[in-house]
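[Q] Does anyone have a clean structure-token version of this?
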Amino acid sequence: MKLFVGLGNPGRQYDKTRHNIGFEVIDELSERWDIPLDLAKHKGIFGIGRTGGEKVILLKPLTYMNLSGESIRAVMDYYDVDIEDLVVIYDDLDMPTGRIRLRQKGGAGGHNGIKSTIAHLGTQEFKRIRVGISRPQNGMAVTDWVLGRFTSEEQAKMAEAVTKAADASESWLSKPFLEVMNTFNQ
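[A] Here you go.
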């Protein structure tokens, strides 16, 4: 069983914001794989189904970004998901808008959702798909930037990035993550 987690914040006011790109990838996977996000417990909304011969869980924590690890830990414990079967999908300020990058492990890089995940899992050794949102320009505060919406120019890049992140997720169902990294980290 593989667990795909998209990080974001709950509530309509956060829909389509930079910080919610992880939620958008989970929505894309839900649609692709016909797995409705119709379960609400463990401080998140999620769906369970099968695709490509693999049982999968799609999770959107509803704890707000800074507490994402609570929901992830609860789902992993309840469904007995191994750490090597987890991938977390989230926004990254340090990459150009629309670029994706896969990693097998690493630090939080200042991302509070990842800090929470590391704290609750007790390890940095989990797979990630990072989606670039760039850094704010002209002295804009980081908080205002990540909670802001994409410009019309950025929207096309981000739609493509969501598709690529979903493609990478799908590829992991049948290939080792290292091979998926080699394909998508170009």
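[Q] Thanks! Anything notable?
[A] The CA atoms of residues 101 and 186 lie 8 Å apart.
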